[in-house]
Each structure stands twice: as C-alpha cells, then as structure tokens.
Design brief:
Largest sheet: 7 strands, parallel
CATH superfamily of the largest domain: Aldolase class I
Mean pLDDT: 91
Number of domains: 2
CATH class of the largest domain: Alpha Beta
Order of helices and strands: HEHHEHHEHEEEHEHHEHEH
CATH architecture of the largest domain: Alpha-Beta Barrel
Strand content: 15-25%
Number of helices: 11
Length: 273
C-alpha cells in the first residue's frame, strides 16, 4: 500500500486530519520529568524520550501521525538522535505514522544517502538495513530534480512518501517563493507544477500522490490557488495557531473530500476543533 493511502486511511479511521509536532525544547519540558534525570546529554535524551512517549500514549488513538522536527534532536548530538529514533519507533508501535521534518536537499549522491537513512535502506556488509525507517520526510526542492529523484525512487521501492516545500508559512517566504518568472508565474506556482509532475507515478487508491506538498496556512490565497492547480497533491499545512494561521485559512487547502470531525473523539481533551 502506498504511504499516502496508509496516512489517509488512518485519518479516516480516526476522523482527524491533524498531526502532532514533537519539537522538544528541553527548557520547556515539565519539571516532573526534568528532575528525574541528570543535566547531561544522556539525561536530556532520556527526558525527551519520556516526554514524547507520554504525548504519544495520550494521542495515538485520536491523532494519526507525529511530525518530529529533527533540529530539536540533532542539537543534542548522538544522544538527541537516540531520542529521535526511539520516539519514531514507539509511535509506529502505537500505530501512528511518522513524518520526519528534516527538510533535506543536496546533489544526487548526498540526497541518496539522506534517503537511505530515512526512507530506504543502507547496505552493511551483505545486508541492507533500515535505519530510521519513517513513513514520510520533508524535502527542499531548491536544487531541482537532482536533489529529489533519489527520494522519489525510494518512495516507489519502499512505499514511502515526501512532503516537498512549496509555499512555506514563515514571514519571509515571499523573498524567493513569490518572485515572478518571465512567464508571469510565481516561483511557488512553478514548484507546485513540478511536485504534481513528480508525483504522477505514485497516485494511490484514494486519488492522491505520495509525493505531497508543504503549504502554509498563513497564506490562504496562495493555498487556495495551489489546491486548484494540484487536485491530486496532498497537503501538509503548517502555521496554524502560534504562527497566525486560522481554521478558516486551512479550509482553502481542503477539496471536495473534506472531513467532518466528530467532536466526541476529543472528549478526553475537552475540546472541539
């Protein structure tokens, strides 16, 4: 089964198209967790693991996927990457999908190495082994197809998926993404068309491709425009809440297959989204 169908089927099962971002900031972890461990790299890693597992335990039955941002793990070196690995494995054991927010981009051989680490397999002796084995990764298309093709090839081979940056949610995204080309199109429109083209061979049973797009909720007009241009492209929509994106903004990214959310599913948190 294609990665996008696994995600969509889980979303339908839980009636919830959201993901939980696991971006642990050590100084913001609960005191009751921090006081259990020494103030060392190993202790920090163990605190992050405990905190992430607790969040997963509370959400795996209502939220279909996690999205850990790699920077918050890399900053603690090998110990931090151990926390990333254990977090991903634990989430998958609980039935959640994992979207690794790594935003990688490089020339072909280096892109292949990145893909081997997260989506494909790495050859060790006479065996090929999975390293992090996540379901999706985020990638940056700025270097063109050379930096994307190795990931696409592994998506085809191992039933994985990509979320490619198209129109990001940050305030300065327009400095590059909104520049107009000679034909009058903005850069983000060109990227939208490329993502659509790159994903043609990976459209699943739900009508969407495993080669998907990142489109920020903070730019609803562009979000609406991109949706019309790419009906078979699935969207990861960051920027809701603290960055200023609202529910009515996110709605521009939905199509005719939009979801009806059952508020009873969120009773344990006392909220209705």
């Amino acid at each position: 089964m294609k990665a996008i169908d696994k995600l969509i089927n889980r979303i339908k099962e839980l009636n919830n198209p959201t993901v939980i971002g696991l971006d642990p900031r050590y100084n913001l972890l609960p005191k009751c967790v921090l006081e259990k461990y020494p103030n060392t790299l190993e202790g920090i890693s163990n605190a992050i693991i405990e905190y992430n597992k607790a969040l997963i335990d509370e959400t795996y039955d209502i939220i279909p996927a996690i999205k850990p941002q790699i920077a918050f793990y890399e900053m603690f070196g090998i110990d931090g990457m151990r926390a990333f690995e254990e977090t991903c494995k634990y989430a998958k054991e609980k039935g959640m999908l994992v979207i690794a927010d790594i935003k990688r981009s490089d020339i072909g051989t280096t892109a292949q190495a990145y893909s081997n680490a997260y989506l494909g397999k790495t050859k060790i002796g006479d065996k090929e082994v999975s390293i992090f084995d996540v379901d999706f990764v985020t990638v940056n298309p700025y270097m063109g197809i050379d930096s994307i093709k190795p990931f696409i090839d592994d998506c085809k081979k191992y039933d994985k998926g990509l979320f490619i940056l198209v129109k990001t949610s940050n305030p300065s995204s327009g400095e590059l993404q909104d520049i107009k080309l000679e034909n009058g199109e903005e850069v983000y429109i060109k990227v939208t068309k490329l993502v659509k083209e790159w994903g043609n061979d990976l459209i699943g049973e739900n009508g969407y491709s495993s080669i998907a797009a990142v489109v920020g909720a903070t730019y609803p007009k562009q979000l609406e425009k991109i949706r019309k241009l790419a009906p078979s492209t699935y969207f990861l929509i960051p920027g809701y809440g603290a960055q200023g994106g609202k529910a009515e903004d996110i709605a521009f990214g939905f199509d005719k297959k939009r979801f009806r959310w059952d508020c009873k599913r969120f009773k344990k948190f006392n909220v209705c989204i």
